[in-house]
Design a protein that fits this description.
Helix Hairpins; 3-stranded antiparallel β-sheet; two-stranded antiparallel ribbon; 587 residues; 15 helices; SpoIID/LytB_N
Length: 587
């Protein structure tokens, strides 16, 4: 039975989502985020189709190559059998020729004997009746034996010829099949190679386009510090869920934590320290199977602002945790931070347990670790944390290597695991409560993090685009839901940007109106114009699983990842969901 191949035909793209292909091929020259989004959407669709077909083709190519190898082995075996059989047939035919000559001689002799010695002569020449019957029986036995020899030899030759013919047919069939499979495998190998090149080309284009889109959206979703910094964050009453926007119904998205969510939670460490945990317990909680090792750190580190003494200048200037936490019960948190910062810096600059030299230059911004000369000059209690932990680093028990110790302000209650330098940190709920009610016992809540549960509506610089809170009116939120419906169904997202994007972000975009967005949602079951109830389902894996909405068109269920994507693309002003673990509230 022939198996159908997932043949992939790659054709040139003329128009992509209403955009000419040559425009998409030059992402650096694009400024319209709608065009960029359209190009990304279509390219990603093509890439998914090609990758899926190519995966099938790879599997089929492997099957065909295995079949070719098997066919070659079978053909070689048949050739050996045919060679052996041909020699056997030749030997048998020679023997048969001899037997036929002997048989002919016997037949001739028997004929002469019967002519010269008739049955009556035998009868009269026999001395008794018993001798006569013995002679007759002997002659019949010889005749039967001769006939058996003739039949046996003839049958043997016939069977050998049939077997030879059958093997030849099998050999021809296998050779023909091998030829067809060779042809299929050759064709499919070219298709796989062609698709690989096309996938690589598309991936490059998508990366370039995505980079441009991220550049356009950076002012909205990518401008937040990932660590506490030297000064604690100020709380914002308008960002809390108990804020009264002055209208109803009102809807708002609240994020648990802010990026990133790996390694040590600084506010979690503060909460643990205030409850009595020492720095070793804190570090093991966040980094897993590790130990504290004492090493020689009397060295010079290269930074983006110049080389400096590692312990006495660089570490004293790390401005990643408030010194005043020491007086609030958080001295062990500062010690844990000192060890994490020391480990991170060594790992970043190439210092290793077997080769204790730094090579790479480390930056002094949030992209690496924040370092300030003012902090180094006046470190306060931070100096104590650094000096009392001097030379102490984190080492993975499994890797035997320094741990690349990431950390961040607030995870929202769930720490994502990550792997680096052979060590893997755990993913876990950072709470004393059951995960289904994690907020009530979250260590970050005990540490007083203002980022634990927050509605983000302003940029880091304070830009709000005229909005004083994160709450949305019914028509605004319905518009977001319609955008999420389109995103969830893989629809056209070329116009899914904030209606106020030009005035707020200053780009030359062409966002869709609410009516146009609703028209796009009509393609996938109908638009949403009214929401009466919302429930949010969270996963034990630390993310929002789905949003369940009761609407004018009935129940609408949207995956958390799709809702977040649509929210960050369509929400007005600077509104954004900063975490995959979030909630949506209605009042």
């Amino acid at each position: 039975m022939r198996k159908k191949l997932a043949i992939l035909v790659i054709v040139g793209l003329v128009v992509v989502g209403g955009v000419k292909a040559e425009e998409c091929d030059n992402p650096g020259g694009l400024s319209d985020s709608g065009v960029i989004s359209g190009c990304i959407s279509k390219y990603e669709g093509i890439l998914t189709a090609i990758s899926s077909a190519n995966t099938t083709n790879r599997g089929e190519l492997k099957r065909l190559n295995d079949q070719i190898t098997n066919l070659k082995a079978q053909i070689n075996l048949l050739e050996k059998q045919l060679e052996k059989l041909a020699k056997n047939i030749f030997d048998r035919e020679v023997k048969l020729g001899v037997k036929q000559e002997l048989l002919a001689a016997k037949v001739k002799q028997d004929y002469i004997r019967k002519r010269d010695q008739p049955l009556l002569l035998v009868l009269f020449s026999s001395q008794s009746a018993n001798q006569f019957y013995r002679d007759v029986a002997y002659r019949e036995m010889l005749a039967a034996n001769d006939r058996g020899i003739i039949a046996g030899v003839a049958g043997e030759i016939h069977e050998l010829n049939v077997q030879s013919s059958r093997l030849n047919v099998q050999k021809q069939n296998l050779a023909g099949l091998k030829k067809r499979v060779d042809s299929q495998a050759g064709f499919l190998a070219k298709e796989v190679e062609k698709a690989d090149k096309y996938v690589a080309d598309l991936s490059g284009k998508i990366s370039a386009l995505s980079a441009r889109q991220q550049q356009l959206l950076a002012a909205k979703t990518g401008t937040y510090a990932t660590t506490v910094g030297d000064v604690p964050l100020a709380d914002d009453p308008a960002a809390r869920p108990d804020y009264n926007p002055g209208f109803s119904p009102a809807f708002a998205g609240f994020s648990f934590g802010a990026p990133h969510f790996r390694g040590m939670s600084q506010y979690g460490a503060f909460g643990r320290a205030k409850s009595g945990q020492n720095y070793e317990a804190i570090l093991r909680a966040y980094y897993g199977d590790v130990r504290i090792a004492d090493v020689n750190t009397s060295l010079t580190i290269k930074t983006s602002v110049g080389a400096m003494d590692f312990e006495n200048r660089y570490l004293r200037g790390i401005a990643e945790m408030p010194s005043q936490w020491a007086s609030e019960g958080g001295m062990e948190a500062l010690a844990a931070q000192a060890i994490a910062a020391r480990s991170y810096a060594l790992a970043y600059t190439g210092w290793r347990m077997g080769n204790q030299n730094t090579k790479t230059t480390i930056c002094v911004t949030e992209a690496c670790q924040v370092w300030k000369s003012s902090k180094a000059d006046n470190p306060g209690a931070w100096a104590t944390a650094v000096s009392e932990t001097r030379g102490k680093i984190l080492v993975g028990n499994g890797s035997g290597e320094v741990v690349n110790a990431w950390y961040a302000s607030t995870s929202g209650g769930y720490q994502d695991g990550y792997s680096s330098l052979g060590h893997t940190t755990p993913g876990f709920w950072d709470t004393t409560s059951d995960w289904t009610t994690w907020a009530s016992g979250a260590w970050e809540v005990k540490g007083g993090s203002p980022w634990f549960y927050k509605g983000w509506y302003k940029s880091r610089s304070g830009k709000t685009c005229g909005r004083s809170h994160p709450w949305l009116k019914d028509d605004e939120f319905s518009d977001l839901v319609n955008a999420a419906i389109v995103v969830a169904n893989g629809g056209d997202v070329s116009g899914i940007f904030p209606e106020d994007v030009r005035s707020c972000l200053g780009e030359n975009d062409n966002p869709w109106s609410k009516d146009r967005m609703a028209s796009e949602a009509d393609k996938y079951g109908g638009r949403v114009t009214n929401i009466t109830n919302i429930s949010v389902k969270h996963s034990s894996g630390g993310y929002t699983d789905k949003i369940v909405l009761q609407t004018n068109r009935g129940e609408v269920v949207i995956a958390g990842a799709n809702f977040k994507k649509a929210f960050n693309l369509r929400a007005p002003g600077m509104l954004a969901l900063m975490s995959g673990l979030f909630n949506v509230e209605k009042k």
